[in-house]
Design the sequence.
């Protein structure tokens, strides 16, 4: 009499569902087929067209949660986000340390997610800007997609903030100047970042600043899956980006940089919300709390920078990152002259 799959095989099916290699319906179908046929492996193989080698690979790597990729030796997990996981590795051919950004398997069958991921890989290969992580190779493996890129050492600003650390005004403005330089060079290449936030900015061992994620970068709002899609992270979105306006330009990135500056110095977000929708509504409708800024002993000059960078009307913001950098430099020189 056929026996149901073992607890171990049922756990394996659960991993495949969690990781996105199977839908729940497909897992139930595999269980039913295994019960009928009396053998788990043939049932799973016939369902997805996998051979025994693929099934064993998925079992050993826990559905690629602990990946083994030909040509690389995985050393450690560097990070994870909503769409991908990043692993530090060494290339077998030359032992160079690289980072492998792997699209989550559950998104590999999502046409829009794949499109965005492939566009990021091609953009990282095309852009040659010091301080922005470089892409070297884009390939497909085990049904999902992988970007080989520079392994950038350091910690993200988000990690510092999560640990309860904040930055002095000088430190934060130094970061803004460097990131502003990256944005200006991206603009000259016809590219907007569209998702600037502490989690995408890394500080290296010697204090160098790097942009490590261009997952939403592109021209204007090109690349949205439909007219109602808002790209980016709600806590840092410019009002026009939150509304889904079609005429997005570099001033949206300046707003996000302002929200990042606010977070770095004050240790909290400029606007709060229980949901993404509430957060985006606040970005559109609420102004900065001047009393909160004064209560945190923010200097008048930083207060001015924040107000201008995060103006609700983009016409009132700095017209470009270069204008922002120039104004910060002029202010610093004036302060030095007074001292």
Sequence:
């Amino acid at each position: 009499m056929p026996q149901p799959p073992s607890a171990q095989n049922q756990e394996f099916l659960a991993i495949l569902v969690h990781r996105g290699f199977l839908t729940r319906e497909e897992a139930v179908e595999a269980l039913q087929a295994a019960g009928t046929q009396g053998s788990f492996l043939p049932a799973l193989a016939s369902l997805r067209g996998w051979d025994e080698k693929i099934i064993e690979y998925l079992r050993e790597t826990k559905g690629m949660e602990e990946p083994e990729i030909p040509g690389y030796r995985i050393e450690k997990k560097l990070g994870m986000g909503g769409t991908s996981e990043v692993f530090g590795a060494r290339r077998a051919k030359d032992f160079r340390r690289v980072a492998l950004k792997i699209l989550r398997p559950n998104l590999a069958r999502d046409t829009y997610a794949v499109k965005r991921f492939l566009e990021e890989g091609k953009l990282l290969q095309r852009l040659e800007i010091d301080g922005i992580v470089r892409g070297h190779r884009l390939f497909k493996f085990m049904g999902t997609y992988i970007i080989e890129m520079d392994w950038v050492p350091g910690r993200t600003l988000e990690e510092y903030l999560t640990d309860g650390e904040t930055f002095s005004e000088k430190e934060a403005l130094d970061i803004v100047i460097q990131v502003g330089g990256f944005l200006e060079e991206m603009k000259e290449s016809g590219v907007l970042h569209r998702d600037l936030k502490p989690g995408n900015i890394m500080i290296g061992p010697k204090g160098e600043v790097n942009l490590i994620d261009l997952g939403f970068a592109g021209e204007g709002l090109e690349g949205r899956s439909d007219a109602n899609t808002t790209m980016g992270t709600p806590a840092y979105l410019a009002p026009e980006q939150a509304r889904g306006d079609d005429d997005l330009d570099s001033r949206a990135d300046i707003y996000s940089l302002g929200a990042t500056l606010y977070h770095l110095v004050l240790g909290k977000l400029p606007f709060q919300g229980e949901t993404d929708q509430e957060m985006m509504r606040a970005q559109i409708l609420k102004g900065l709390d001047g009393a909160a800024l004064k209560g945190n002993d923010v200097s008048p000059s930083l207060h001015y920078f924040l107000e201008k960078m995060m103006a609700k009307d983009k016409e009132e913001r700095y017209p470009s990152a270069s204008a922002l950098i120039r104004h910060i430099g002029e202010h610093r020189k004036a302060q030095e002259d007074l001292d």
